[in-house]
């Protein structure tokens, strides 16, 4: 979908932002460009819609060389979510979202109708459409930014550290929303961040850049975490690489059994058979709270919960929160170990790793 | 110093036409001042090397005494309204140009980048993003230019124009204070009303600046 072919970018002041980048971004899915500041990831992103022009090399979007197209028309066909939203302060939220449809000559009425539709898509109330950006919270502004980028239904979405300026709780919400949206819309998303956890969470593929504009490795998150191409990648991913890998695996395959009875601790359920807490046999001990986990939860969450549990057991529930069984710390451990081994030995369907020349 | 109220009653028609003529001269000056300042400000804003030159030039023009400007213009446009308006326009340039340039400078880079990234072409960005966002600063300049022009019109009495300024000459020549006082009061009123109207206009033009619950 997007092909970078031998791209170099040198700025007039002599710094090399991107060095000999060749990368193919497939259609659909989220490709995250990650690296520390000054590694060229944002420059790479901005060359796609010609906000920055490459010094040499070609970039193709949908097979067409971007430099052969009218820059303004190209930009209208590519969604762009800017750092800290970058909304127009003098336009209402609705008119902000309607920007590109209006530029495409869709007419005010149609553009606004489309904008109203998108407000709902990104989880904002119809009422907020009449407000001005400064009347919204940072998280809401960011949602408007996403809606604006989606307004003309572009196949490609460029996102430049879109969630960098919001607090961690809101960031997690926005990430969840993006994943939900992406499931629905299946765009080709290029996402820039310096946050490894965000990259692992959102990326179908992660491209790691090193200072000086070198692409070091591009692979699926699990592959990257299990087999970093070199020490730079390993360092960048951090010491808890193994745990991050577990955050990608779900609990689904871990076996479960019936809850134990008559031990030192009993699993207490409510009348709908939803787990409440662990109760001690000796009433002088306090009951211990628990977090029930569903099949979609990660092995990392399961491991965490099993450590906190007095019995080493985790309570498993179905989608309605009803108890299905328990799993032991050992079962989780064993699965975690197996997940690691599998990732290291390239079994199953593995995406290939690309390494920059 | 007493006011001869009957004089006012006898001259309402004259006073009305002088007020209208006064206002017309001042507003024309602001209008032409804006017409000249806007494109020059865009040039000064975009072409850095020209910025100092243009702002400096408007400063120099401002330092020319007003009577001198009218005298200099006489051979060109004679004893006409045109001379008055040209003279006044020159004075509005210093505030209008400076404020428009500063207004354009005050538009956040991020917002301009966003417009570009959405596929807005430069002219449309200027008209629909930069100028609206620069409006509060430009309007501050327009208010100063308007009040200044209203007070300056009187100087054009020397070339036989001058709107309400003619009342001053009349009063001084006859040693009769009433027209002078009436002229001052009407000029002040004009300035205050014009300024209030401009504040109202700005309120209407910048809905995003209003505080809402």
TrEMBL record, chain A:
Keyword Nucleotide-binding attributed: yes
Record domain ABC transporter: where: 2-237
Compositional bias ranges of the Low complexity kind: 339-357
One of the record's GO molecular function terms: ATP binding
A Pfam family reported for this protein in Swiss-Prot or TrEMBL: ABC_tran
Keywords assigned: ATP-binding, Nucleotide-binding, Transport
First and last residue of the signal peptide: none
Residue ranges of the TM segments: none
InterPro entries cross-referenced by the UniProt entry: AAA+_ATPase, ABC_transporter-like_ATP-bd, ABC_transporter-like_CS, P-loop_NTPase
Region (Disordered): 329-357
Sequence similarity: Belongs to the ABC transporter superfamily.
Name by which UniProt lists this protein: Osmoprotectant transport system ATP-binding protein
Organism of derivation: Streptomyces pseudovenezuelae
Source organism phylogeny: Bacteria, Bacillati, Actinomycetota, Actinomycetes, Kitasatosporales
Automatic annotation (TrEMBL), chain B:
Domain ABC transmembrane type-1 as annotated: residue spans: 19-198
Superkingdom of source: Bacteria
Gene3D superfamilies: MetI-like (1.10.3720.10)
Keywords: Membrane, Transmembrane, Transmembrane helix, Transport
Transmembrane intervals: 20-41, 53-76, 82-101, 133-160, 180-205
Membership in a protein family: Belongs to the binding-protein-dependent transport system permease family.
Pfam families named in the record: BPD_transp_1 (PF00528)
Subcellular location: Cell membrane; Membrane
Membrane topology summary: Multi-pass membrane protein
Protein's UniProt name: Osmoprotectant transport system permease protein
Tagged with keyword Cytoplasm: no
Broad class of where this protein is predominantly found: membrane
